Amino acid sequence: MGFVSTISEGISVALDSLGANKVRSGLTILGVTIGVLVVMVMAAVITGINRSFSELLAPNGMTTFSVVHFDFSAMMNFSGPLDDQERGFMRNPPLQPEWTKELGRLPGIRSAAPIAELGGYEANVGSDRVEISLYGVGADYLEIDSGDIMAGRWFTQTEADRRADVVVIDSAAAVGLFGNRDPLGRDIRISRRNENARVRVIGVYRPPANLFAGLATHYVWLPFATADKVLRVWDRQISFSVRPDPDVDLEAALDATRARMRQLRGLKPGQEDDFDVVTSDQMLNLWGQLTNVLFAAMVGLSSIGLMVGGVGVIGIMMISVTERTREIGLRKAMGGRRRDILWQFLVEAATLTVVGGATGMLIGGALVWTVNQWTPLPAVVPMWSIVAALGASALTGVGFGLYPASRAAGLDPIDALRYE
After folding, report:
1. Mean pLDDT, the chain, as a whole number?
2. DSSP strand pairing (187-192 vs 109-125)
3. Residue 63 confidence (pLDDT)
4. Please, what sign has the CA dihedral across residues 241, 242, 245, 247?
């Protein structure tokens, strides 16, 4: 009961101090508030982005993998020279789109298609124009991307083989270009600098919801061969998307694809691959490394705020010890133990910082809600961030309050009673 009484008394004194010295106490805990706020907001955004990235890969299935012309694993080694990665990107020969037919014939492979992501284009209808994310894809793209056709249809294999001038657009592009008019059967012009092409809209497609779809809201898909015909597709922008049959072991599919790609590349036994096969697990691993860097930055920023708050705690607690010197002497003269006084001041310091942490959590929660409502960034507050924020706040108070508490507990009762 004595221990509980000491804690409750420390909390009561701390709250009284907050009420009596609002400005001083507020400035003291401001650093802790900022530190906790940073933890809450950054943890929420990073967690939301991680979840969105996993949702981006999930519709494709964790067995769907890509073939790229450069060593993707080099990107995962952040300690390696960037120049080496750039030289690898340019040194390796590009992929040939017709190779997807060879990969598609492999046993256990359900589909293989070239994909080219083209940037810097805009689409216009008369005076209405929008910036677009342009993709050259195969007719079986819907087997890889699990969105929904909202109106019209996707282009057929025959249209893809004949390089038909047809496109599928997303709903945002449809509204931006046609307003309330029906976009099906209407022509749009795709252009970039000296390149331009007139194509006909045959469908409106809604891609799976994810963070990256929210950041780029105007999408246009056209047959890969059409993009290669009417636009300047840089051959190093081409990759292959390969989807194995559901009952096929992923490792077997990867080995078969790698072996066939070595044949198509004309590589001899012992020669290193001049391409890479990238799985969803590798993508998640790379993404995890990127978010680890963000987490490290989060810890660094929040630590600065907590240290500033801790220095303020030392100051306000030293003032509290000075103001209550006679009280401490009286308690010792009446039999108060050193550890009771020590605990009281530690609890008082921890209460101050926890109040600051709780304030930071409330402000952080409001900011997270604002981010969710008004930006495309997803933000999800993980439970661990709440526990970590409160724990860090309490530890900051205990750590920085230890010196003032030790000084109070070590006062001589006779000198303390004589203190004026």
Report:
1. 76
2. antiparallel
3. 67
4. negative
